[in-house]
Amino acid sequence: MKSHIIVGLLLPLVKVECQTSGLPSCPCVSPDFLSSTYWRLNKLHVPTSKGLLMYDAADTFGSYCASWDGDLPGLCDSPADCQHFYCYVDTSNCSTASYPSSYFQGMDLQYSYLTCGDQDSQDDVLKEIRTQLTGQTLRFAYPASSRPWHYQQDDGWTGSVASFFQQLKQTAGFQTLQKSVSEASLSLYASPWDACVHDVRMQLIDVCVSVVMETDTRRQMATFTSPILAGSMKLMVHKEVTDNRWDPALGYESIWFSFLKPFSPFLWLLVVLLIFTAGIFYYLVEEEEDCNCGTCLHPRKAATGLMAICGGLHQGTLAFFAGGDLGAAKAADTKTRAGSAIRVGFAVFTMVMVATYTANLAQLLVVDAQQSTGIGSIKDCDPPTEMCRKVCIIQQQLNLVRAQHPTMEVVTFPNTGDLIGGLESGECQAAVVPEHDVRARSDFQEAMCANGFHLVGDPVFTVYVGFAVRADLVNALSYYTLTMVYQGIFASAYDQFRYKKIDTCLEEETSSHEEGQLTALDMAGVCLLFTGFLFVAVGLRLTKHGVHKVKSSISLRGDQRDLQETKKEAMEETPKMEDLENFPADKMQEVETSVR
After folding, report:
1. Are 45 and 518 in contact (CB under 8 A)?
2. How far apart are CA 517 and CA 126, in angstroms?
3. Which end of the chain has fewer surrounding CB within 10 Å, N or C?
4. For residue 348, what are the CA distances in angstroms to 273, 326, 343, 353, 547?
5. How many CB atoms lie within 10 A of CB 255?
């Protein structure tokens, strides 16, 4: 992990008591010298400004607060020069100022005076680093032209890093002499960034100015300033989506139920319970005699509790959808003050709920149920799967990737530019890319928008970006870079020069629906629900019509049967022909009328 150099220099410096093991917020640590190149012949060899000195004591050098320089014979010209109390610390667990070790380069060791209460030494360091760069001329080089970090324009260099470095030069008061990366280093490394760091090691330049991602191999060649940014390395993959808005399993995200989205399921349940409860209370206080739920539940045939429930369901549901007035659910005036209070409260409740629902409906009803499919995280690639067989990485991060994902199949590239090409050509199904490059560089964004790439999952790991610098200058440059980063100067330059097509590209993806504009598809759920009610109503109507027709048919058959029996009886009462001559005229008229 990259050490946060001199973190806390900008905080108020306070006197602290000397702590043998350091402050609780920044404890001392014991370095592992036994496995380092500095441990030979059972002795610790310490490279100093006075040459290679031997440390031959039992205690581990720098493992607790002490004047360790006094234990290096020949280093100090006088006893006063060796009274600096310090110890080595873990910068990931230290909230005070610390500095990279000038003795043990390559071990990523940081030491701190403040954790040991040595304020005087801390003040001396600050005084030294604030004036160290003033009037000096620093040789620097850009690894290569790289938008938007540093590129040539109008016979000069510009870009976010170039602009930041110019402001750093003015703030610290030093002069610059621009160089080019040496051909010797370029012949050794495929990456010009590696070559630039190697030139610092060979003392051909003092500073390699760029967004140099720190790796193990680069830290072995040179020291780095405090990070100008910490970047997440994330997985870039082809974007695959599926539109399954008709799948009921999506719940509120599906077409079928999208109209319910303004309220959560629990809130819907609460609303329904309140509607029924209000109706039941209103029914009880108004002493309704008929629950209107059918003759099967007539008050004379049902218990009082069942009558109340039935009446509540009827009153409450009808009133809510009729506008909230419980009295409107029946053609009668309120009989009691309690009933009036319930009516008013229920009307207010209904008004608020309907208004809340309506206010949120336009925004929430537009369903976006497109779900990303395919590779979702590094877990899909380690171990390799049919979906993700190989992952593209840059060569400099191979050891780090191997350490964290030993079973993952990788394809290495010398730089991040070639990395995207590997993903485009199908050499791998995913690529580990720096997010700060994705948000800034045109080649990344053009490839993403053209090929439908996107970033998925949590960061695979974090990289720190700084300047590779000569070891004796690292503290002073770190002090000023840290100050300017805290002031937001680099963030401002980053946003000014970064390529912004990805912003437009992402906006185009998310603007398929205008905000607040509903379509027929968005209303499909509620339309289907209303269609269902229509079918139920038609079914009830047809059922009622069929029952009525059956009853009419039965009644007609009964009438016809009665008519036939009447005719039969009339015929039996009709006199025979031979008796007609003696049949009275008035009786004859009655028979004719009956027959008709």
Report:
1. no
2. 60
3. C
4. 16, 11, 9, 9, 42
5. 21
State yes or no: cis peptide before 143, omega within 30 of 0: no
Q: Whats the size of the chain, residue-wise? A: 596
CA distances from 164 to 42, 158, 180, 227, 468 (A): 47, 10, 19, 13, 15
The DSSP annotation for 450-497 comes to HHTEEEEEEEEEEEEEEEEE-GGGHHHHHHHHHHHHHTTHHHHHHHHH
The whole-number pLDDT of residue 528 equals 66
Look up residue 519 and give its amino acid.
T
Q: Enter the DSSP assignment of 413.
A: E
User: What is the reported pLDDT for 319?
Assistant: 65
Which residues, including other chains, have CB under 8 Å from residue 54's CB and lie 6 or more apart? Answer: 43, 44, 45, 46, 73
- Euclidean distance between CA atoms 316 and 237, whole angstroms: 54
pLDDT at 464: 86
3-state DSSP: the chain helix, strand, coil percent, rounded to 5? 50, 15, 35
Distance between CA atoms of 390 and 385, rounded to whole angstroms? 9
User: Burial, 522: exposed, middle or buried (Cβ in 10 Å; 0-12, 13-18, 19+)?
Assistant: buried
Q: Give pLDDT, residue 78.
A: 84
Residue with tokens 């409450």: 316
- Among candidate residues 211, 9, 15, 35, the one with its CA nearest the CA of residue 110: 9
CA dihedral 572, 574, 577, 583 (to 10 degrees): 140
| CA Rg value for the chain | 44
Torsions phi, psi of 431, nearest 5?
-140, 140
Hunting for tokens 């199908």 — which residue is that? Answer: 426
Below-50 pLDDT ranges, the chain: 1-18, 288-302, 329, 331, 367, 369-370, 507-518
Residue 441, helix vs strand vs coil: coil
pLDDT score, position 236: 92
Q: Quick one: pLDDT at residue 107?
A: 83
Cα separation of 451 and 509, whole Å? 13
Non-local (6+) Cβ contacts of 387 within 8 A are: 374, 375, 380, 429
Q: Number of helices (H) and strands (E), helices first, in the chain?
A: 17, 21
Give CB contacts under 8 A, 24+ apart, made by 74-79.
Answer: 74/50, 75/48, 75/50
Residue type (1 letter), 13 = L
Residue pair 76/84 in contact (Cβ under 8 Å)? The answer is no
β-sheet with 87-89: strand ranges across: 87-89, 110-112, 99-100
Render 561-579 in DSSP notation, one character per residue.
HHHHHHHHHHHHHSPPGGG
Contact call for residues 212 and 394 (beta carbons, < 8 A): no
Residues 6+ apart with CB under 8 A from 453: 236, 237, 238, 239, 423, 447
Place of tokens 């890319």: 433
pLDDT score for 462:
86
Helix (H, G, I), strand (E, B) or coil at 440: coil
Please give the Cα distance from 396 to 418 (Å, whole number): 13
Distance CA 321, CA 346 (A): 12
